Amino acid sequence: MSTEPAFSGGQLLSHAVGFVRELRSEGMVVTPGQTTLFAQALAEVSIFDPQIFYHTARSTLVTRHEDYPKFEGAFWKFWQKLGLERFPGELLQPTPLPPHKEQKPRPGEVGREGKKSSQGQGPPLRVVDRALTYSEQEVLRQKRFDQMSEAELEAARRLLSGFEWRISERPTRRLRPAPAGSYLDLRRSFRQALRHQGEFLRLERRKRKTKPRPLVLIADVSGSMERYSRMLLHFLHAFALAQTRHGVRTVEAFVFGTRLTRITRSLKKRSVDAALAEVGRTVKDWSGGTRIGSSLHQFNRIWAKRVLGQGAVVLLISDGWDQGEPELLAFEMERLQKSCHRLIWLNPLLGTPGYQPLTRGLQAALPFTDDFLPVHNLASLEGLAKALESLSLRPATRRSGMAG
After folding, report:
1. Residue 320, SS3?
2. Is 173 helix (H, G, I), strand (E, B) or coil?
3. CB burial class (10 A; 0-12, 13-18, 19+) of residue 126?
4. H or E element at residue 276
5. pTM to 2 decimals?
6. Computed from CA positions of residues 8, 14, 17, 18, in that sequence, does the dihedral angle turn out positive or negative?
7. Most buried among 135, 238, 268, 392, by the most CB within 10 A?
8. pLDDT, tens digit, 9 for 90 and up, residues 25-43
9. Coil/strand/helix, residue 72
10. What is the DSSP code (8-state) at residue 237?
11. Rounded CA Rg of the chain
């Protein structure tokens, strides 16, 4: 038997790619990353062992439980179509398979007898239900948005639409009955006493009602953010719909390049495609220059008093590449921070290894930013969701003036 690497025959790799096409034709989702992993795994295993080959393909190419029947049918159908007497190992060297030794299932594994090869030769294949060693979702969670293929971006958008977004609540001035409330409810206490001949058997209490905080989203759609803009708009749309499902009506959204544009009405559409199409028609400075300071000046002058009441949280999404004056940006950031409960800057470049916020704009803005967080992949958005849900009821210690 030859000791050459698994791909030396040349045919195995081409047939492996053909097998992936067969799976896709059956309706399975197989990404380019899975195909690459499958090819790399074939170089590390014995392809002359049918059981090992089968499980290598199954563990790298199948990510959903409902795809198992499709995979098994496509697996045998494809290799039978090639007219091979035994198994893909013959694509490298036509030597007979070694005698099969039936393996006992490991503790906790449930086995079932598989199908035989097309010519009825060779031992039966024992298929064992094992935990997958590869997760497409886990790879998508960690992969940067600007490095995703179109298929991966579409899968990421589907995952994003299923996120559970909840924002922390704020105390209101209204009170409600509560067994262990902080305020005495004299009216209800007297009413209860009248039922017991004027005896105060128990003092009723009240506590403050809470409501979700208003949220304001301000996103950069300039040229330097083009690789992230579309995914971030999907994020804005998913977030706005999630808050509507939870009864939160106070979600405002704005985008900016060289000027500010309100897109709140567009994001209220149920269809994300219709919402993004309307945003594209509304925004006139898409993929242009960046003037963060002047855009925030517009927001502070026109919109701040309308949308920043009741302890609002502001999410500012930008990479910080500003063409305006840093003094203006610092002034408007300070105004914005003083007007909201929490000012969070989301920067997609922050997830890049070794990144340092050294631009003039960021140096001017960071002293007035309460939180500086990455927004470059799905995992960072999950972290943002947890941060928004855990915001304190009272304002925490905030940055102001020069950063320490």
Report:
1. coil
2. strand
3. middle
4. helix 272-282
5. 0.59
6. negative
7. 238
8. 877 888 877 787 887 777 7
9. helix
10. H
11. 30
